[in-house]
TrEMBL record:
Keywords: Nucleus. Residues 1-22 are annotated as: Disordered. It comes from the Eukaryota. This is Lysine-specific demethylase JMJ14-like. Residues 1-190 form the JmjC domain. Transmembrane segments: none annotated. It comes from Musa troglodytarum. GO terms for biological process: regulation of gene expression.
Length: 375
């Protein structure tokens, strides 16, 4: 292939570029644009590209305005796009911006943190829908117009492209009923050494905090119905946390040779995301380290590969021990006596006076831990 055209795709600022000397694809920094100059570039390229290609019967002709006579329809642009993907005759260079700082440029999905940032994984595997359909895989198509939202569900392969000058925003949503799927995704990403777009354990922690607060303030609180849906013995949040505890228990067995277990500082990952040096697994709940490398951490599965030192020199950091995690599960099931034993300060909760009067739960914690292992 030879490079012949530059194609404008979206109103952000990175280059997706194909090299003249080899067939590599990647992202490199492009020129600086203002919103106005980028729109001018995009509109001019669109006019020239489809002008060179020539008008067809499917193009929307508008006799009252010559500027719009060569304006292609969505169907035209889509056909050209998949033609490039399926049977490329030209090498296309696309101006496409990603990772804009929404604290500076604004967001349609504002959040409290000033560090909110759009994070788009590079636009690297592209498969034509016709190939998928030929294999019996269902394919659905949607055209998103300004002001509209498109939701993609967990584990759904999706792709898209812009039909010209455009500014779009993608955001990851994590409702409570996503947590079981998110747990599976976290493990899969770890196997593939991929970074997660958000911390499953942080999301779970916030969900637990909110649900406990609802339960504490249950009188005359209409949101209590949400607690009843997510918690209790059969609640989706309870089941997700229980599965996470079982998984953490298995990981702890892997590092049984490391006896130095320390309590993780509550600010361990406050200012920066802590990830396994090898597989990028989120380290919000636990981490392994060594005195020889104070800033290098691994997940429990890769604790032995943090360094070559003896296990006696290594240490584990845990945000909660297994008894505390099991206590939290029991609390979500509805036994608020378990909350009395849990470290509520870690959740920023204030124990109501009536809960302080509750007796200790009758379930022995050591036995509860063993039961969790047997599930």
């Amino acid at each position: 292939m030879t490079r012949r055209r530059n194609a404008s795709a979206a109103s952000e600022t990175n280059d997706c570029l194909g090299s003249d000397t080899d067939e590599k694809f990647g992202f490199q920094s492009g020129s600086d644009y203002t919103l106005e100059t980028f729109k001018e570039y995009a509109d001019e390229y669109k006019r020239q590209y489809f002008g060179v290609k020539g008008a067809t019967e499917s193009i929307d002709f508008r006799d009252d305005n010559r500027e719009k006579r060569l304006e292609p329809s969505v169907v035209d642009i889509e056909g050209e796009y998949w033609q490039i993907v399926e049977d490329p005759t030209d090498e296309i260079e696309v101006l496409y911006g990603a990772d804009l700082d929404t604290a500076t440029f604004g967001s349609g999905f504002p959040k409290a943190s000033a560090e909110n940032k759009i994070s788009l994984d590079p636009c690297v595997t592209q498969l034509s829908p016709s190939v998928l359909k030929s294999e019996g895989i269902p394919v659905y198509r949607a055209v998103q117009n300004p002001g509209e939202f498109v939701l993609t569900f967990p584990r759904a392969y999706h792709s898209g492209f812009n039909c010209g000058f455009n500014c779009a925003e993608a955001v990851n949503l994590a409702p409570v009923d996503w947590l079981p799927r998110g747990l599976c995704a976290t493990e899969l990403y770890s196997e593939q050494h991929r970074k997660t777009s958000l911390s499953h354990d942080k999301v779970a922690r916030e969900a637990v905090k909110e649900q406990l607060e609802l339960y504490f303030l249950q009188s005359n609180n209409p949101r209590l119905l949400r607690w009843q849906k997510f918690c209790g013995k059969d609640g989706v949040l309870t089941k997700a946390l229980k599965a996470r505890v079982i998984m953490e228990n298995k990981r702890m067995e892997i590092v049984s040779s490391i006896s130095n277990v320390r309590k993780m500082d509550k600010d361990f990952d406050l200012s920066t995301e802590r990830e396994c040096f090898l597989c990028s697994y989120d380290l919000h709940l636990s981490a392994a380290g060594c005195e020889c490398s104070p800033h290098r951490y691994g997940c429990l599965s890769h604790a032995k590969r943090v360094c070559s030192c003896e296990p006696s020199k290594k240490f584990l950091l845990v945000r909660y021990n297994l008894d505390e995690l099991n206590a939290l599960v029991v609390a979500l099931e509805g036994d608020l006596g378990a909350v009395k034993l849990h470290r509520l300060e870690d959740f920023g909760l204030v124990l109501p006076m009536q809960l302080k009067l509750l007796e200790e739960p009758k379930i022995p914690w050591r036995k509860a831990s063993l039961n969790m292992r047997d599930h």
